[in-house]
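Protein folding task:
====================
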Amino acid sequence: MRSWSIRSESTSVNKNLKFSLWIVGVFLFALTVGSFIPSKPVGSNQAASASASRPSQALGRYSQSAPRSGAVATAPPVQATGRGAVVATSAAPPSARAAVPPPESIQYSELLELIKAGKVSSLSFENGSSSVLVSQNGKADCKVVIPDDGKAELRALAALHSVKVKVQAQPEPGPNMLAILGVVGTFLLILIIGSQLLRRASPESGIFNIAKSPGRRVDQLGDSVPKVTFDQVAGADEAVKELRRVVTGLVGRDTYAAFDAELPTGILLVGPPGTGKTMLAKATAGECEGGMDILSGSDFVFMLVGVGAGRVRDLFASARKSVAETGMPHVLFIDEIDAIGGKRGGGASSNGGNQEREQTLNQLLVEMDGVQDNRGILVMGATNRLDMLDEALLRPGRFDCHVRVDLPDRRGREAIFAIHCVRKPLAAEVTLAHLADRTYGYSGADIKGACNRAAILAAERWFHETESLRQQGLSEAQIAAQHPRQILLKDFDEGIDFVRHGNAEPGKQAGMTDVQKRNTAIHEAGHACVSQVMPGSDPVVKITILRRARALGYVQQMPDGDRVGLEMSEAMARIVTALAGRAAQVVLLGVKDSGASNDFQQANHMARLMVTRWGMSRLGHIYVGESDGSPMPGMSANGLSCGPALADRIDLEVSRIVEACYALAKSVVTADRERIEKLNAILLEQETILADQWKSFCRDNPSNLKAEDLQFDPSAPESTETH
């Protein structure tokens, strides 16, 4: 029934347009015909008698002279023609009306002589023409072509001999011609606009189909959507299992039906950016037996209120039609669904954009779980802001299943590396397990970018080294034997750092002064040495003072295994390690610079989480989240959903924890001063220290402190704190 109503609406629109254009065409035709019918103005007899008394010279420059004595002194009637000229007519038979001969032509020099002889009575110039009409005393008029530089001379000579000079404008079109041109132009304009509207009223596109579904059918996109299956997705096993269940059925649909089990009709993929939500949607399209539409949340957002809701209606109507015709399930994937699924009531009701978004969301809620049956339709959504979605959208019956797509674990990262390195020539020293260990916290997109960057660097390095060997006179076989095409471990190491910290800048590194390099080396040495001492700290895998786009230097730490939560000792270790760089500069160099701003940001963020989320402070087991942006009474200025009194206590507690951790970092730096100086010397010489060299350094240079000397409990009363 829905498809029939759509066709009937389109047919009705076409009929209305055709009828309107027919009415306009009839009106314009009548107006055009009416412009040709002469109208007899009031007082036309008086006008005719008045025209009879006018001299014949008023007939224009091509008229004959006045009638002589004895002739009938009746002026012929005047008739206006289509060209705007004035022609005399008479009641005499055609044979009696002789044609007026055109004026004779003379030379320009002859005209000058006639003016000097006083035989010229007047000159008539015509705008836009290079000729002049000459009226002579007692002779017929003649025409003279004037050269471009002769007009000024001719005017001066005429003024000198008292010859009248007239300037005549070009003949203008008559009123009937202007009316015809105006009507025809208007008719053509309306005809063009009408034809465009009729053409755009087709089912494909146009203003009458503005509410048509913007969904793109995967089977119609061809090669623009590469074929992806679940076997090509790694690092998201739980999500793949859930999608297999609803798309193909893990145990068969008959088995589900025997138990009266209804599979989810709405799946919401939730996770941080780059974790593979869109890849899972592509795999679903590749595995789906029926049709699939791919959309974005912004496809429903439009300038006009109500268009988004219309597009939602048309989208589900098209999906129901597909299910009815094919008997196969149909998948609707809406990426970035938070663009239309945000919480309602967050803005002023008079906001037109907010009304449009809420109407679109309301229509989506009705279509997903309303009166009409959605059997065979699977709706998938993807977002990284689950907290921003409306609660009505998340309830069972709409998005029944929420699939968390988190950052991949170690096994998942190794599988992702295997997918992206399957066709890359890896060196023997490169192992996927080592790459997985080096990329803790990296998403699937980050891993793909690291692999691609490593391949680019290897290709450039191989090209330059090959060109150098060719210049040395080696043959291609010798070059291939000595220098094979392969990606080395150092290429992957650079690619991994590039994704997280940006590209290296050796030019700027060379421009740094010795003082700046020493400040950076002391700073990073402080991070590394304090991290190695603090209990609960992650192992250090790389220390570098090589300048990059987003860092002057850094210490990279990776846990031994995957971590799902943080203990208080681990959180404290992160804060102390972050503040150790500034502590080392103050203790060893007596300087403070701006390089520690990111360290302060990390330390304060971790301390605030300890106070407001994790119950690791003297404020006790409280949870204070950030506001959602809606107006709430008692909202503090820092955006926390609490009163101003508690917000002040939170700020004081965060500051207390950070300062206590900084004091602890200074005590470690002071105790291990010589150790930090040795590491500083190595960094200034090598610029980079990797995990194996760092372990060897720690064995040869042990710390003067023990783990039990560094216990700190931020939740304990102030009198029992120990440093």
About this structure: The mean pLDDT is 76. The longest helix spans residues 2-36. The chain has four domains: 104-168, 210-404, 410-499, 504-720.
